[in-house]
């Protein structure tokens, strides 16, 4: 087996676990995002997180799965040196920044967040207004905070897409229900 095939198999193995947590979030009426932090040097999961407070009337934009996983990892003593995040939805800017600042070496995501995903932002380039230049077609290779982060998109994308379709197809789920992400997801085949 080639190294590339071995890495793809490993990414799928960890993403299946993140998807398990996303299903857990969905079963609780939450937005189906699951995240695990994997210490590659230890070969183990060092933290997990699920999206919280996106259901019912307690809506907020702080309790993202990645933030929960980072919080759990810090509380556990930040084990591991080569830590990767496996997340079922492309990280937003808040989560991407938190992952980078906390020394995550790589991010593997399943489904693209067409509305709020931040992995295509280049921090070194700016437009005439001083805002970061966004290029959704290329993952981060050389980022201001760290030149070592690697982004692997679309691992088990279809499995994650099914969860988001289920979420947006359920009338009780009001979170992001009339947004570009909901429309894009429901139109996706």
Structural account:
By secondary structure, this protein is an alpha/beta fold. The protein contains five helices and seven strands, in the order αββαβαββββαα. Strands 2-1-3-4-7 form a five-stranded mixed β-sheet, sandwiched between helices. The protein has a two-stranded antiparallel ribbon with strand order 5-6. The two termini are 31 Å apart. Mean pLDDT is 87; it is low at 125-134 and 139-147.
Summary keywords:
five-stranded mixed β-sheet, two-stranded antiparallel ribbon, 189 residues, alpha/beta
Number of strands: 7
Oligomer: single chain
Any idea what the radius of gyration is?
16 Å
Spatial order of strands in the largest sheet: 2-1-3-4-7
Strand content: 15-25%
| Largest β-sheet summary | 5 strands, mixed
Through-space gap between termini: 31 Å
Give a brief outline of the structure.
With 189 residues, the chain is an alpha/beta fold.
Topology (SSEs and partners):
Elements lengths: L2 H25 L6 E6 L4 E7 L14 H11 L7 E7 L3 H9 L4 E6 L9 E6 L5 E3 L15 E3 L4 H13 L10 H8 L2
């Amino acid at each position: 087996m080639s190294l590339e095939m071995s890495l793809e198999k490993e990414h799928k193995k960890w993403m299946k676990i993140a998807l398990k947590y996303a299903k857990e979030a969905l079963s609780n009426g939450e937005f189906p995002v699951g995240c695990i932090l994997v210490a590659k040097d230890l070969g183990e999961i060092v933290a997990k997180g699920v999206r919280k407070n996106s259901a019912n009337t307690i809506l907020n934009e702080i309790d993202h799965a990645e933030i929960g996983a980072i919080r759990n990892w810090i509380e556990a003593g930040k084990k591991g040196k080569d830590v990767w995040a496996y997340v079922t939805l492309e990280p937003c800017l808040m989560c991407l920044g938190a992952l980078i600042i906390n020394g995550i070496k790589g991010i593997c995501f399943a489904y693209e967040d067409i509305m709020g995903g931040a992995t295509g932002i280049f921090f070194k380039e700016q437009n005439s207004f001083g805002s970061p230049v966004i290029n959704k077609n290329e993952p981060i290779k050389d980022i201001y905070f760290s030149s070592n982060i690697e982004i692997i998109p679309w691992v088990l994308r279809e499995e994650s897409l099914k969860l988001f379709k289920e979420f947006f197809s359920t009338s009780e789920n009001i979170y992001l229900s009339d947004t570009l992400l909901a429309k894009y997801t429901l139109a996706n085949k």
